[in-house]
């Protein structure tokens, strides 16, 4: 979900920007990342118990 702008240079240079849907998705992914960081200790403990 990115838009790109190609510049006529050698070597080619490309700039990418997120579209509106991409920005909305990023907000959701950021929330998931925050949740993961908050519960990381529990997640690691569950993995250790599973692998034991």
Task: Describe the model.
The protein has 52 residues and is of the alpha+beta class. The protein has a two-stranded antiparallel ribbon. A hairpin with a 5-residue loop joins strand 1 and strand 2. The model has no long low-confidence stretch (mean pLDDT 92).
Poorly predicted residue ranges: none
The description of the largest β-sheet is: 2 strands, antiparallel
Strand proportion, as a percent range, falls in 15-25%
Mean pLDDT: 92
H/E element order = EEHH
Question: What brief labels describe this structure?
Answer:
single chain; 52 residues; alpha+beta; two-stranded antiparallel sheet; 2 helices
Question: What's the layout of helices and strands?
Answer:
Layout: E1 2-7, E2 13-18, H1 20-38, H2 40-51
Antiparallel strand pairs: 1-2
Short description:
Helix content is 60%, strand content 23%. The protein has helices spanning 20-38, 40-51; strands spanning 2-7, 13-18.
């Amino acid at each position: 979900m990115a838009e790109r702008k190609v510049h006529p240079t050698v070597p080619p240079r490309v700039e990418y920007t997120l579209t509106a849907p991409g920005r909305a998705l990023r907000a959701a992914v950021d929330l998931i990342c925050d949740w993961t960081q908050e519960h990381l200790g529990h997640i690691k403990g569950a993995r250790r118990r599973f692998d034991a």
